[in-house]
Amino acid sequence: MNLRGGWALIRGTWLSWMQHRAFFFILAFGWMVPPLVSLLVWSAAAGQDSLGGYDRGGFVAYYLVLIFVNQFTYAQANWTLGDVIRMGGLNTWLLQPLPAVYQVLSSEAAGKTVTLAFVLPVAGALALILRPELQVSGSALLLFLLSLALAWLLRFMWGYWLALLAFWYTRADALLAVQDALVFLLSGVVAPVTLLPAFLQGAARLLPFRYMVGFPVEVLLGGLPAAEVTFGLAVQAGWAALAVMLAALMWRAGIKRYSAVGG
Amino acid sequence: MVWMKLIGAFMRASAQEELAYRENFWMQVLHSLLNLAVGVLGISVLFTQVQHISGWNYSSALAILGVYLIVSALRGLFIGPSLEALAGLGQEIWNGQFDFTLLRPANTRFLVTFRRWRFFALFDLLLGVGVLAVAVSRAQQPVSLLNWLFFGLTLLAAVVLLYAALLAFTSLAFQSPGMVFTWVFDAIFQLARYPVQIYPPALRFTLTWLVPVGMMTSIPAQALTGQLNGWMLAGSLALAAAMLVGASWVFDRATRRYASASS
Q1: Residue A193 within any structural domain of the chain
Q2: What distances in angstroms separate CA A120 from CA A77, A221, A248, B107, one per listed residue?
Q3: Is residue A262 in a domain?
Q4: What is the share, in percent, of chain A residues with pLDDT greater than 90?
Q5: Is residue A242 part of a domain?
Q6: Residue of chain A nearest B28, judged by CA positions
Q7: Sequence ranges of the domains in chain B
Q8: Taking the model in full, what pTM does it have?
Q9: Is the pLDDT of residue A262 over 70?
Q10: How many domains does chain A have?
Q11: How much is the pLDDT for A261?
């Protein structure tokens, strides 16, 4: 692993992305709207009562944290990876004395900092207007940080192995769109998982998607029993490990098949 | 009519282009079905928890989703692709090919509005009509002829409003090429999936009169269920006319700023 070169690449990408920050602010705004719509819809639905354990302030807190987690774990780099493989941009990557994953990680790091520079102030301003009700214990915060890191690893690696399918099939990015739809439905964006109908809840508990966004939020809000948190972290780590393995396998098999289109 | 002949020629050229990528068809089907599933499930989940929200029940909310899908499909049929060819990423304003559009012996605004067609959008239109039909058939009383007429009028106003808003946002691209301002509109448009009445008062006012995405879906759905008063009907038609005139003026002014792409 060429750490010095990797760091230089990450820094360079970050600096160049900061020049175009207005462009990424627009992108980030688009990504934060679906959870924001859910926030408004559910706080209107709750009114003075509570639904599934959330009252109006609870929904606001849930969705503001979710907006942050969603942006933090969203791996936009995987969308470009497919194009790079299809268009032959990978040739340049392969010639550099760096593992290719650094290229993706550098746009991940650059994208994260640029978009969060927009999302965090906006979420902060919304918190002032909408008054969330949030009480966080120290242990919940620690568990949140752990599950947030795992969520990022899982979502990034899951998108990475899907994007690597571009070695075999040129329209593999359709699977990324399917992943986004499943995240929207099962990961607590359209509604907190506890409010979903039973069969969707069962699916959400076992499939990887809830563990990409919704799970860390539920951990932070402290609504989950301890056993459920442990179970969730185990499932999350399991899926993340599987995704890392799949990504490594796909990369090794794909690179042999790659025939350098274009230049 | 020379205009109709031109539109016919644009349609033929676009159809030939689209037919060249036949494999894309199934991907587009997949995207449309995902979009439908996400919309329907989103509303269904909400109404498993509550019976009514701000005066809307399940079937009238479904009617809004139907109108949303229909309006989006009409946008995708020609307004979206045509304006995208003008101000999308790396398109005419950006790379200077707008020169050739300006030089053509036809009205520029006419050209940028009608020149690209995407006939796959008719499939989306069918899905939207399907959702609307389900919503109408679930309603307690049948829709009267007068309400269908009002629905037609407000739907027409909705499409005009959508076109005017997109034209105005597109005009901004002349100020700073490289920014895709219509993405901002796309993000706001997602709020139109739900009744505008559920949003807080200030936002509701904005979405009805300033960036009238609420006017585009809630008002036609209200016309269908007979909840629309005469004032709102007149208001939506007047707003559509005013915004069309205003946006055309803004666009014509903006094209004067165009200075081609050469340095």
Answers
A1: yes
A2: 20, 18, 33, 45
A3: no
A4: 51
A5: yes
A6: A174
A7: 30-255
A8: 0.91
A9: no
A10: 1
A11: 65
Give the span between the Cα atoms of B179 and A96, in whole angstroms.
31
Q: Which domain holds residue A178?
A: 3-257
Instruction: Tell me the β-bridge partners of A54.
Output: A51
Q: What is the mean pLDDT of each run of 10 residues along chain B (263 residues)?
A: 91 89 82 92 92 89 95 94 86 86 90 92 96 91 89 96 94 82 90 92 92 92 88 94 96 88 61
Q: Which ranges constitute the DSSP H helices of B172-189?
A: 182-189
- The pLDDT of residue A121: 94
B-contacting residues of A 53-92, CB under 8 Å? none
Identify the pLDDT of residue A108.
Answer: 86
**Residue A17: its pLDDT value, please?**
78
According to DSSP H, which parts of chain A are helical? 3-19, 21-46, 56-73, 77-87, 90-95, 101-130, 138-164, 173-186, 198-206, 214-221, 226-257
* CA A252/CA B41 separation, integer angstroms: 39
Q: Which residues of A touch B53 (CB under 8 A)?
A: 41, 44-45
Q: Are the Cβ atoms of A191 and B183 closer than 8 angstroms? A: no
**DSSP of A138-169:** HHHHHHHHHHHHHHHHHHHHHHHHHHHGGGT-
Between vectors from CA A13 to CA A11 and to CA A14, what angle results, nearest 5°? 65
Average pLDDT over residues A167-195: 88
Residues of B within 8 A of A200 (CB-CB) are 45
What's the one-letter identity of residue A54? Answer: Y
